Fold each of these.
Amino acid sequence: MLEVGCRAPDFELLDQDGEVVRLSDHHGRQHVVLFFYPKDNTMVCTLEVCAFRDAHGALSDTGAVVLGISSDPVTSHRSFASRWKLPYRLLADTDGVVRQAYDIPRTFGLFPGRVTYVIDKEGTIRSAVNDPLRASRHVYEALRVLKGHRTS
């Protein structure tokens, strides 16, 4: 995983609506909660995306934007986001380039990992959580960090 204090690598991916999203578009404007999850429509991943959905207002109140990333294609993300009424963007890293740039470890050596980074407005990583089985921990940690580092 990338270390707290290092610069978050920029990326460009498509969201569930086929629109381009760049991390650098948020520099100087918003904190970013960037969570990597293994796969749409699986039990723990659904719990995680819904936990971020349910905390979306509190996360937004801190000045943060939430972005979820998996290797699923845009069409899968569109269906998944619609089904669970997700108010944030899901990004399609179909070739795994961004997952690799962020050094996301595999879970049990088999599955894509579950890692959440909190990135400040300057693009610096302020928190990194690697907890493959406790999806709600990712939301709680992001809120804790954002509330402690709240800046306008």
Amino acid sequence: MSKRAATVYAFMDESGDPGSRSRSSASKHFILVLVETTEPETLAQELKRLRTALNVSSVFEFRFHDTRSVERRAAFFVLLHALNVRVRAAVVDKTKLADSFASFDTALYGFALGELVMRASPNDLHDAILVMDGEGGETTEKTLNSIRRHLTQLYEQRKRVRAFRKLIARNSRNEAGLQFADMVAGVLAERAEHGESPYDDYVDSKMVDLWEYPPK
């Protein structure tokens, strides 16, 4: 009997918002990141060791925009480079989207994630578990349901095997994989805004797919 393949956990987080482009505070880009691993417990253990090495609280949360220290950011991305993870990312220029995305729209999550899933090898995410950052409640459930509907339509239209066994939400404070996804999304947002980031090489070393909309 063949051995069952290890379960892939795809930790999803974003940078920017899926909101109206007409608002002065709206971001120009929406960035969606998947950090994939079959060893989520290793990510948690390594972040624990990193916190000890950096002499920060045992509950310190690595979030790109809150982790301002160059030392902490650099140490984090050196760790990322050493781990057995894959990164997929979508960078969407919201100014180029159709008018149907004009308001705060959970459909943008499905749009970005759907393209990443369709571009992946069917085996890469088959029977995987998608973990998104969320506190639960109505907004999180609305987003998850929107993603489920959009992916189901894509599977049928493109005759693709279903990618995820389960879609769940977790609090990033307690989920190391989501902290990795947040930090990677921060680098890609910095790149989208400024053309580059000091941590590009670390992220690119783990990147298996980077989808940009519209294509350049």
Amino acid sequence: MSFNFVLWAVLMGGILFVAFAANRLGEREPPKGFRDTGLAIIEFGRAYPNEAIRQLHATVDGDVVFVRLHDNKAGFMRSQRGHYSCHLIEPGTAQVSPTLDACGLNIEFSDVPHHNGTFRFESPAEAAEVSLWLLGNFVKPETLDGGAEQDA
């Protein structure tokens, strides 16, 4: 009877050790995000298959990617615990202001306020480029045509 008890105790101890080791190894995984721009292209393409991506800029932490699309459109992607939130930034729905260090932007999205925040980039040039994408996105297409659509 005591031999069975010892056998079960050793077996249970082994199972607990394997579970503990697996848990510790799982915590050592690198943080997920958009460290690989290929992943960002695939995920955004899956969400918006008819949009052509021209350029990407990821934030320093890799959790957010701003996407420049054709026709002066812009997009936004955020890594959220294993899945990715993608959306097109509609003209007039984002307000942008610079941060004090010039490497970041404070952005408020009126249509998706849960994505509001301060976004830091590798350089002031990247932050400026993303702000220009958003500025180009502020201009309505009829304004670019010189108001030709208003005459019709």
